[in-house]
Amino acid sequence: MTAPWRATVLTLFPEMFPGPLGVSLAGRALAAGLWSLEARDIRDSATDRHRSVDDTPAGGGPGMVLRADVLAAAIDAAAIAPECPKLVMSPRGRPLAQARVRELAAGPGAMIICGRFEGIDQRVIEARNLEEVSIGDYVLSGGEIAALALIDACVRLLPGVMGKQESGAEESFSEGLLEYPQYTRPQVFEGRQIPEILTSGDHAKVAAWRTAEAESLTRARRPDMWAARIGQPGTKKATDG
Ligand code: ADE
User: Fold this and answer.
1) pTM of the entire predicted model
2) Is ligand 1 within 6 A of the CB of residue 218?
3) 225 and 218 Cβ atoms separated by less than 8 Å
4) Residues 6+ apart with CB under 8 A from 13
5) Residue nearest to atom 2 of ligand 1 (CA)
6) Distances from the Cα of 73 to the Cαs of 79, 131, 222, in angstroms?
7) How many C-beta atoms lie closer than 10 Å to residue 234's C-beta?
8) What does each of the 241 residues of the chain score in pLDDT, given as a tens digit?
9) Which SS3 state, helix, strand or coil, does residue 40 take?
10) Contact call for residues 63 and 57 (beta carbons, < 8 A)
């Protein structure tokens, strides 16, 4: 049997893990051994008396920068497999998308470095071949919450984690479309009916309605996704029949 998918997190706040990943779907999978998590304290690799991990930026400016030597020592001490991707969470990274999540989930796991302060010394990014990853165009106070989001996105795709019920063949992004609206009982909520077609029992009509809704939502909310989709050969719109 191959080893389960492994997340190795390097952070100044190991107590933030597993955090929300210890409950619900990811938490049950963790307890079942479908994936494993190790949160390592970067500060354990500090060498001076004060256990300092950061210093002032070369060239001046506000804030503090995570030291290259300390972080490199922390990375090396983790001794992860060479084929395991080494990520660093950062708002200046490449935006995380489902395609990269799928690749990461299909691999052995990931090392995820959580930055704090103004950033980390550029030389360690280069020397340890780190991949900078952003979870969106906003600034968090550190990489930990971004790392939790990335791990959650990967773990739910691991074999055996999602049941058939939860499995996301039709979910947002898997087909380049946002998800169509969902409804359940009661039939009437504050005077609003469930769209009639959904209770008609006509499966072909339901499928066509859902595709049309997904398309109009995507067009309105995500013109970038819509443009990428219609640019692809073989994409068929519900309205094409
Ligand atoms: N650290 C701070 N903000 C971040 C973001 N948007 N994505 C990833 N890591 C971050």
Assistant:
1) 0.93
2) no
3) yes
4) 114, 142, 144
5) 140
6) 10, 18, 42
7) 4
8) 689 999 999 999 999 999 999 999 999 999 999 999 999 999 999 999 999 999 999 999 999 999 999 999 999 999 999 999 999 999 999 999 999 999 999 999 999 999 987 899 999 999 999 999 999 999 999 999 999 999 999 999 999 999 876 665 546 676 899 999 999 999 999 999 999 999 999 999 999 999 999 999 999 999 999 999 877 765 655 555 4
9) strand
10) yes
136 Cβ closer than 6 Å to some ligand 1 atom: yes
* Type and span of the H or E element at 11: strand 5-11
Q: Which residue has the tokens 């066509």?
A: 208
**Distance in Å, CA 150 to ligand 1 centroid:** 11
Ligand 1 mutation pick, 139, 141, 144, 151, max ligand atoms within 8 A of CB: 139
Structure tokens at 36: 């494993």
Do the strands 192-193 and 65-66 form a parallel or antiparallel pair, or are they unpaired? unpaired
94 contact partners, CB below 8 Å, separation of at least 6: 100, 131, 132, 133, 134
Expressed in angstroms and rounded, the spacing between residue 185 Cα and the centre of ligand 1 is 39
Going from the Cα of 111 to the center of ligand 1, the distance in angstroms, rounded, reads 16
Q: How far is CA 150 from CA 39, 102, 127, 198, in A?
A: 15, 11, 23, 34
Residue for token digits 């933030």? 16
Which residue, 164, 174, 87, is CA-closest to 131?
A: 87
